[in-house]
Amino acid sequence: MGCVKLNILDQQHKTNITYTNKELTFNFSLKNVCRYLVYGEILTNKRSAGSNYNTPYKFSAKEKDAETGFNYHGARYYIDYMYVWMSPDPLSDEYPSTSPYMYCSGNPVMRVDLNGMEDTDYGITSYGKIIQIGPTNNEPDRLFAVNHDGTKKNNNFVTIEKGSISNVDNKLIGVYYDQDPISGQTTINPAYGIMVKGDDNAEKIFSFIADNVSVEFTRAAVGENSGKNGINVISTSNKLNSEGGSQSIANYCIANSIKIRGMDHNHPRNNPNPSGMDGDRGFATELEKHYPNIILRIYTKSDHKFHNYSSFGPTLSPCYVK
């Protein structure tokens, strides 16, 4: 972290200014450089020659008290050389497995604690709706299973990598049409989705969701990148026996020449086999026309396993020769 002094020079009048719409040059001079250990303790604090500049705002841009040496985070003081908060977490009863004095849950590399207050938590209801439970103090980083009134079912949760999810507000990604085979009546159903970065991260979130809902979800791995940079879309139309978001994703990717690397969906009734040509196998046939190497899987929560399939039916997991 460094502090930079910025001078702006008006090229026409050769005077220093704060703002102009004329041609400008930007002159930067480095005043102060701090290097920190992972928990925020200052490793080096250097200033440019002849400068006495020394900002009080240090680690995480929080003010370091000159008298005590503690970092003021708003709700509590933080002692960077001891890696602890000065006072206990007022919400410590909700986190019995974590010390009430611990900073960033003991993981400052992957987590951020902006003010010493509780994390931002999200919940997934049994019918597939994602809701926020608690105030916004950070990027969404935990997902719980919740009851219809928003209370947590239990203390089990999945940790979400910071900044890896977008569209957490159940964004509409498309609609699909259902036709009743008896009455012939057609209904229009919305589909909602979130975007997740990282294939392992997305699979972890999808599996947790599938273990705690009674409706179908889809996880589509899209784009050329895979692994930590892989882009995934998790979608649902909040139905027990169908998931229209997968069709919306496929239509968009095919129309825009975007690769679909794989597509998973869950069967809430724990049937590991794909439905017939009017369901899973028929959809697989269409996908395989455009993506011959696509990996298709069904997830069942009874055994917490993925089951591979194709347009021909159940298959073995693909083997790769390195």
Number of strands: 20
* Overall mean pLDDT: 76
β-strand percent reads 35-45%
Strand order, largest beta sheet? 13-14-16-15-17-18-19-20
Element-level helix/strand string: EEEEEEEEEEEEEEHEEHEHEEE
Q: What structural category do the secondary elements indicate?
A: mainly beta
Largest sheet at a glance? 8 strands, mixed
Report the helical percentage. 10-25%
CA(first)-CA(last) distance: 43 Å
> Rough shape?
elongated
Task: Give the total of domains.
Answer: 2
| Contiguous uncertain segments of 5+ residues | 1-26
Radius of gyration: 26 Å
Structure annotation, total helices: 3
Summarize the structure.
The protein is mainly beta and 322 residues long. The protein has 3 helices and 20 strands. 11% of the residues lie in helices and 37% in strands.
Describe this structure in words.
- The chain is 11% helix and 37% strand.
- With 322 residues, the protein is mostly beta strands.
- The chain has two domains: 2-106, no CATH class; 121-314, no CATH class.
- The strands form four sheets. It has an eight-stranded mixed beta sheet with strand order 13-14-16-15-17-18-19-20. Strands 2-1-3-4 form a four-stranded antiparallel beta sheet, with no helix packed on it. The protein has a four-stranded antiparallel beta sheet with strand order 5-6-7-8, with no helix packed on it.
- The two termini are 43 Å apart.
Describe the protein's topology.
Elements: E1 2-10, E2 15-16, E3 24-36, E4 42-47, E5 63-64, E6 71-72, E7 77-79, E8 84-85, E9 121-124, E10 130-133, E11 142-146, E12 152-159, E13 165-179, E14 186-197, H1 199-212, E15 217-222, E16 231-236, H2 245-255, E17 260-266, H3 280-290, E18 295-300, E19 305-310, E20 313-314
Parallel strand pairs: 9-11, 17-18
Antiparallel strand pairs: 1-2, 1-3, 3-4, 5-6, 6-7, 7-8, 9-10, 11-12, 13-14, 14-16, 15-16, 15-17, 18-19, 19-20
